[in-house]
Amino acid sequence: MNVAQLLVRASRIWPERPAICSGADLHATYREFARRAASIGASLLGAYGLEPGDRVAVVMHNQPEYLEALFGIWSAGLVAVPVNAKLHPREFEYIIDNSGARLCIVSARLEQQMPASVKRITAPGEAWSALLEADPIDPVTLGRDDLAWLFYTSGTTGQPKGAMLSHGNLRQMVLAFFTDVERLQPGDSILHPAPLSHGSGLYSLAAIQGGACQVIPQSGQF
Hints:
Blueprint: H1 4-13, E1 18-22, E2 25-29, H2 30-45, E3 55-59, H3 64-75, E4 79-83, H4 89-99, E5 103-107, E6 120-123, H5 126-131, E7 147-152, E8 162-166, H6 167-180, E9 189-191, H7 199-210, E10 213-216
């Protein structure tokens, strides 16, 4: 089980439907989204020498590349460590170190706030564009209990803790969303003004399951 298979499925059923929009502008169809994620996964395993189970921090403002990064990480069997872009540089450093992240994908505005010791890819940028040029791979086969997302708590009563969400957890969350929240379907849209590093990012899986379009406000916020 690999949650990246949700995107593969969607790309086969609705290849030309809009998958990601930046405001009113189309960023990617489902075919393009799946292709980019699969190429990112191939590059992370190949050019960057990562191995399934390695952690990759995602320190980004809300932007279309965020979703591509998440599914690229999962395609490669890696563990996503989404970090709220509004945190202090000391908090970035703590979470990156605590999670054991070997690589960080970062928004251009945040690049200078990253620890000097961590290897990073700025998105968009030259290194990011190079990721997209690799031949795509099929999602790495994983088990239900394999780790997918390290969900760091706010740390209001101490240092943030990384809650461990498995691929099985995320799959069950998608099913629960359709049962208890909303039955998304092709033609629907889901707006992401709240941080993709938190609940909004988790909702992206349900949107893909239903073939909905994910809209990133061009302001990146409410």
